[in-house]
Design brief:
With 129 residues, the protein is of the alpha/beta class. Helices cover 35% and strands 23% of the residues. The chain has a 5-stranded mixed sheet with strand order 1-3-2-4-5, sandwiched between helices.
Length: 129
Protein backbone atom coordinates (compact mmCIF):
# COMPACT_ATOMS: atom_id res chain seq x y z
CA UNK A 1 0.00 0.00 0.00
CA UNK A 2 1.34 3.43 -0.95
CA UNK A 3 1.53 6.03 1.76
CA UNK A 4 -0.02 9.45 1.35
CA UNK A 5 1.91 12.52 2.34
CA UNK A 6 -0.21 15.22 3.92
CA UNK A 7 1.21 18.63 4.59
CA UNK A 8 0.62 19.66 8.18
CA UNK A 9 3.27 22.30 8.30
CA UNK A 10 3.53 25.59 10.15
CA UNK A 11 2.35 27.44 7.02
CA UNK A 12 -0.95 29.25 7.54
CA UNK A 13 -3.80 29.30 5.09
CA UNK A 14 -3.41 33.03 4.58
CA UNK A 15 0.06 32.31 3.20
CA UNK A 16 -1.29 29.63 0.85
CA UNK A 17 -4.28 31.59 -0.45
CA UNK A 18 -2.03 34.45 -1.55
CA UNK A 19 -0.49 32.15 -4.16
CA UNK A 20 -3.65 32.24 -6.30
CA UNK A 21 -6.27 34.80 -7.26
CA UNK A 22 -8.72 35.39 -4.45
CA UNK A 23 -12.36 35.64 -5.50
CA UNK A 24 -14.31 38.10 -3.37
CA UNK A 25 -17.48 38.66 -5.39
CA UNK A 26 -19.87 36.99 -7.82
CA UNK A 27 -18.45 39.23 -10.55
CA UNK A 28 -14.92 37.95 -9.75
CA UNK A 29 -16.21 34.37 -9.88
CA UNK A 30 -17.94 34.85 -13.22
CA UNK A 31 -14.93 36.62 -14.72
CA UNK A 32 -12.54 33.89 -13.66
CA UNK A 33 -14.73 30.99 -14.77
CA UNK A 34 -15.09 32.54 -18.25
CA UNK A 35 -11.33 32.09 -18.66
CA UNK A 36 -10.45 30.51 -22.02
CA UNK A 37 -8.90 27.28 -20.84
CA UNK A 38 -8.94 25.62 -17.44
CA UNK A 39 -9.78 27.29 -14.14
CA UNK A 40 -9.29 25.48 -10.82
CA UNK A 41 -11.06 27.06 -7.87
CA UNK A 42 -10.30 26.09 -4.29
CA UNK A 43 -13.35 26.66 -2.08
CA UNK A 44 -11.95 26.84 1.46
CA UNK A 45 -12.52 27.91 5.04
CA UNK A 46 -9.82 29.15 7.36
CA UNK A 47 -11.06 26.89 10.18
CA UNK A 48 -10.59 23.70 8.11
CA UNK A 49 -7.14 22.13 8.59
CA UNK A 50 -7.40 20.14 5.34
CA UNK A 51 -7.67 23.38 3.39
CA UNK A 52 -4.12 24.23 4.44
CA UNK A 53 -2.98 20.98 2.82
CA UNK A 54 -4.96 21.58 -0.37
CA UNK A 55 -3.70 25.18 -0.55
CA UNK A 56 -0.11 24.02 -0.20
CA UNK A 57 -0.53 21.36 -2.89
CA UNK A 58 -2.11 23.85 -5.28
CA UNK A 59 0.64 26.39 -4.59
CA UNK A 60 3.17 23.72 -5.59
CA UNK A 61 1.25 22.86 -8.77
CA UNK A 62 0.67 26.47 -9.83
CA UNK A 63 4.20 27.07 -11.24
CA UNK A 64 4.06 23.76 -13.15
CA UNK A 65 0.93 24.87 -15.00
CA UNK A 66 1.85 28.54 -15.34
CA UNK A 67 -0.01 30.24 -18.22
CA UNK A 68 -2.12 27.09 -18.75
CA UNK A 69 -4.35 27.06 -15.67
CA UNK A 70 -6.11 29.89 -13.87
CA UNK A 71 -5.85 29.02 -10.14
CA UNK A 72 -8.28 30.83 -7.82
CA UNK A 73 -9.58 30.56 -4.27
CA UNK A 74 -12.86 31.42 -2.54
CA UNK A 75 -13.32 31.81 1.20
CA UNK A 76 -16.73 30.15 1.75
CA UNK A 77 -17.29 32.14 4.94
CA UNK A 78 -17.80 35.41 3.06
CA UNK A 79 -21.37 36.26 4.12
CA UNK A 80 -22.27 38.03 0.88
CA UNK A 81 -21.45 34.86 -1.11
CA UNK A 82 -23.20 32.22 1.03
CA UNK A 83 -26.41 31.95 -1.03
CA UNK A 84 -24.46 31.99 -4.29
CA UNK A 85 -22.16 29.21 -3.07
CA UNK A 86 -25.15 27.08 -2.04
CA UNK A 87 -26.47 27.34 -5.59
CA UNK A 88 -23.23 25.99 -7.09
CA UNK A 89 -23.56 23.77 -4.79
CA UNK A 90 -20.62 24.09 -2.41
CA UNK A 91 -21.66 21.99 0.58
CA UNK A 92 -18.34 21.07 2.16
CA UNK A 93 -14.69 22.08 2.26
CA UNK A 94 -12.24 21.57 0.85
CA UNK A 95 -13.89 21.55 -2.57
CA UNK A 96 -12.13 22.00 -5.88
CA UNK A 97 -14.13 23.32 -8.82
CA UNK A 98 -12.90 22.64 -12.34
CA UNK A 99 -14.15 24.97 -15.07
CA UNK A 100 -13.16 24.50 -18.71
CA UNK A 101 -13.78 27.22 -21.29
CA UNK A 102 -16.46 28.83 -19.15
CA UNK A 103 -18.36 25.64 -18.27
CA UNK A 104 -18.36 23.71 -15.02
CA UNK A 105 -16.59 20.40 -15.51
CA UNK A 106 -16.74 18.98 -11.99
CA UNK A 107 -16.65 19.63 -8.26
CA UNK A 108 -14.53 17.41 -6.02
CA UNK A 109 -14.94 17.39 -2.27
CA UNK A 110 -12.16 16.39 0.08
CA UNK A 111 -8.44 15.92 0.18
CA UNK A 112 -6.55 14.41 -2.76
CA UNK A 113 -2.93 13.47 -3.28
CA UNK A 114 -0.78 15.91 -5.22
CA UNK A 115 -0.15 13.31 -7.94
CA UNK A 116 -3.89 12.77 -8.41
CA UNK A 117 -4.59 16.50 -8.71
CA UNK A 118 -1.74 16.92 -11.18
CA UNK A 119 -3.06 14.03 -13.28
CA UNK A 120 -6.64 15.41 -13.26
CA UNK A 121 -5.42 18.86 -14.34
CA UNK A 122 -3.27 17.37 -17.11
CA UNK A 123 -6.19 15.29 -18.41
CA UNK A 124 -8.51 18.31 -18.43
CA UNK A 125 -5.91 20.40 -20.24
CA UNK A 126 -5.49 17.77 -22.94
CA UNK A 127 -9.22 17.11 -23.31
CA UNK A 128 -10.53 19.42 -26.02
CA UNK A 129 -14.07 20.66 -25.42
Amino acid sequence: MKSITYYFSPITYSECKNMSKEIKSIKDFEGNTRFRGLTVIHFWAEWDVYDITVGKILSELEPEFKDKVNFCSVDVDQEHLIEFLRELPIINVPTLGYYKNGKKNSLEIGLSKKEDLKKKIAILLNNEE
